[in-house]
Amino acid sequence: MKVLIWGARGSVPCFSKRKNHFGTNTPCVEVKFSKTERIILDAGTGLVSMGNSIFEKSNLSTEPFNIFLSHFHWDHIQGLPFFKPVFQKEVSINIYGKEEIDKVFSSQMITPFYPVPFGNLPAKINAVHVDSSISLFSAKITPFQLNHPQGCIGYRIEHNGKILVYATDTEPDEGKLDKILIDHSKGADLLIMDSNNTPEEAAFRKGWGHSTYIDCVNIANKADVKRLILFHHDPFHDDSVVFEKEAKAKRLFRNSFAAFEDMQIDV
Question: How far apart are CA 183 and CA 126, in angstroms?
Fold first, then answer.
């Protein structure tokens, strides 16, 4: 698998010269199994950059785009209305996630917020409710529950003996949901996990549904993960804060790295 980070921030894109290194787009991760086979994890503003890149390369795939949503909070869906392939009638897009997919996007893309109703987009868009493992492009994709307000889905992706786990927007619950995350991360070659908060911020952000780099390291150690990617950076943390987070995580788990836009990882 080849992993490409298109957006690694949380909550809101927050542009600043002091955030150039890690980028300012909200969550979007591309996972490629071959030149034409890919899945997309989340549809934040990073999805817009991905769509632009596809068109710049004149490489519009004949394969359907498959987008797996973790949940419906703004930062994870706000890129879809500006994803260039949605305006191409020859394109098919499958959106996987919780049951309310059609309802959410029909409510988002409506007057006075957006000029084109969701149902009028030229692309063929199919909503797929996912609540158990599915096979796609010879990969096994297993959804699991994360601890986040209004719910969030993590994904374990297995392909050719390799394991990638995507676990954005989650907070330790010291119980059932921590165990679910550890069980689904067991033996992962790569864990991409929410590290939005500093430990100091976590003390007064209980219930916000986010983790610290320490929480990520704890999961990585308990699940015997090979590499850890710190993800969903707080939009108000500039590059220096994220670099410091990465350095502290490395002291506890050597193969820790902070996600940045255009980051590429072979799994």
Answer: 30
